[in-house]
Structures are given as C-alpha cells and as structure tokens.
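retry 2 of 3: previous attempt timed out while embedding adenosine-5'-diphosphate. Reduced batch size to 1 and resubmitted. Inputs unchanged:
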Amino acid sequence: MRPQLFIRKRPFPAIAAIILVLLLSACAKREEPLYQQQLLTFGTLLEISIWGADKRLAQQASSQIGADLQQMHNDWHAWHDSPLTRMNQALSAGAPVTVPASILPLVQKSVALSRASEGLFNPAIGRLIKLWGFEQDDLPSGPPPSPAAITALTKQQPGMNDLILDGNQLRSTNPAVQLDFGAIAKGYGVDLAIARLRELGIQNAIINAGGNLRAIGKHGDRPWRIGIRNPRGEGVLASIETRGDESILTSGDYERFYDYQGKRYHHIIDPRSGYPATGAISVTVIADDAATADAASTALFVAGPQRWREIAKKLGIMQVMLIDGKGRVAVTPAMAKRVRYEIDLSPKVTVVPLS
Ligand code: ADP
Ligand code: MG
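retry 2 succeeded.
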C-alpha cells in the first residue's frame, strides 16, 4: 500500500516553503476567520490558508486537496512505478501510447511552454535529471556525473519537439525523451487545488506547495501578503501584496542541492550543457496561473542574467525578479511596482525594462 502522505526524507525546516505567507500578527487581535493547515504531500510542504469560510468546510476542503495532490504525485511520479513511468517506457521504445487524462494537460502545457522558452524549460530531459540523482527523494551527495555521461545524453538533444501528440495519442521520434514534470507539476497541482476550492465555494485562500503559490481573494479587508525568501540568508527579502487571483513562484538553487569539493550542484539543469544552470540563484515570477509561473521561473533561471528578459517576453511574463550570484537584484518595471523590500537592497537593485 502506498503511504498516505509522501514524505521527502529531509529535515522539515529544509523543505519549508521558499515563499512564506506573511500573516500580520499585529492585526490578529480579535478572533479572525483564518483557517490554516500544513500537510506533507506531493513531496513537499503544502500550506493551505483559507479566509472567511466555515471551519468545517475549510477542514473538508483541505483534506480533499491533500488527497487530490497525493493522487497527482502518484500519477505524475517520474521514477516510481506510475502512469508516467509506463508512458515513458513506451516513448523510449518509439511505441505510441495513450496519455492518461490526468497527464494530458501537463503534456499539452509543457509542449507550449517549452517552445515559448526556446527549450530552456524542457521536461524531456528526465534522463539527465536521473543521471544527476535529483529524481530521488534523498538528495545525492556527489560526486557529479562524469562529463562523458552528461555529453552522451545532451548530444541526443531530447526535447518536447520530438513528441507527436494527436488527441491523446503520443509518440516520440527520439528515444532519449523521458518526461519529468518536476518543473511544472507542483504549479499545475496548485492550479487544480484552487479550482477545487472554488468548486467548494471558497473565494479567499492561498495554496502554497513548497514555494509554488497561488492566492485568490483577500485576507479579510486587506490583500494577502506574500514573502520572498532570501536565497542566501535567513528570512524574507521582499514582500508582495496579491491582487485578486495571482500566482507567485520562485525557483532557487538553494531548494535542492549538494556541495561537492566546494562547488554547489543544484537541481535546475541547463538542457544545453547538461549541468546545473549558472548565473541566477533565484527567480521569482508573478503570472495568472501557477503552472505557467512554475515553468517560467525554471526557464528564466536557466536563461540567467544574460537572456532572461528575452525569454520572459516570449513567455508573456511581465513581472520578474532575478537575483544573480553576486546578490544583484534585477526587476522588471511591473515587478518593481509590486515589491516591498524587507531588507535594505537599494544599492543592489536595478529596474530593467523587458525591451
Ligand atoms: P522546484 O521543484 O524546487 O520548485 P523547479 O520548478 O525549478 O523547482 O523544478 C526543478 C525540477 O524540474 C527538477 O527537480 C527536475 O526534476 C526538473 N528540471 C530541472 N531542470 C529542468 C529544466 N531545464 N526544464 C524542465 N525541468 C527541469
Ligand atoms: Mg518550476
């Protein structure tokens, strides 16, 4: 039997969300109709905040969401026996496969987002992810794979363009394609969780799956306020008040990594080199839905300080904050209007238009 909740074997504080929901205790003098629940599911810490709903409804909604996300985790797992691993076997054999209904939207969204990001978001590089050991629940400790093993995979250039999707029939023209939806699945799961809340009549909530966050409505008479974690230190670097329905996601090199002989190897891989992407250490984006924001934050992280603006434009993402290895912060004008810095960053911040 599968465990009810999938727990990544890492100490709890280490998987604490990249983005924190800031709840202003100063305003919590009277009893507030705020329901909060934390669950370990989907291989991460899931935080549910619901405002203004009947407590029993909120409880019912959060246990439903916990179960939904656990089901998605099982369906979309790229390396445990799952509908996705069975699909991957067929793809590498060049055989046509019927895409299960739970996976089809992920394939469709990924094809479009991969194309728009010029393949920097590339869920077809599952073999590379596995070679690096980042598919495991436990973090690898190194050494990194050999350059020859990495080149052997990158030169086969697996990409979403190798897929032929006709309705729900999928085939790959490149046997090196292995789908791993690690860079979009949590975002999409959050979207489905928000849809579930709305179905249940809940209009004010935040779903945060390990830093993949979507907020709807408000926290009473004020907006929800979200904190962006400092990538190289404790606490919150900046905060953002959400408007209506928004997704705020961060990809960082501090989420899953190991150090080997003084060098950091993290889990966001540049599909061109086969190595962890260099240049950025944290990318936060705001978008309408969490799946798009998830794929986009990964793509812009890979694009790095040189190319993120170009790729953001192609993806239609206007609100971006990128922090580079020297701690310099680049924000788009649209993002600059939204963020409030919680520590003094003024000498390090540059506002850069997308074009
Ligand atoms: P997180 O899971 O920490 O939110 P991301 O959304 O950036 O971070 O996703 C990273 C995961 O996505 C990796 O663990 C891996 O499974 C997969 N991945 C790594 N590099 C890429 C890439 N360039 N394109 C698509 N997926 C990737
Ligand atoms: Mg992502």
